[in-house]
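check these tokens.
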Amino acid sequence: WAEAFLEINLEEAAARARANMEPEIKFFNDDPHEESSHIEKYFWAPTSLKLDSEGRMYVTESNRHRVQIYDKA
């Protein structure tokens, strides 16, 4: 659904393409939760994990309001 969203919302897709998605941020402490709150590719408060019969893993992440799906390698 994220790819479909960006195909329809061209301005959002362009802004994300220009953005630094891995910024170098000087943190006040070494708190992994604080770091993950600023860098989108990191989980930020994952709340549940589910495996299906085909080996896919579903991770629900509450703070980013998303579900990430990983295929079995």
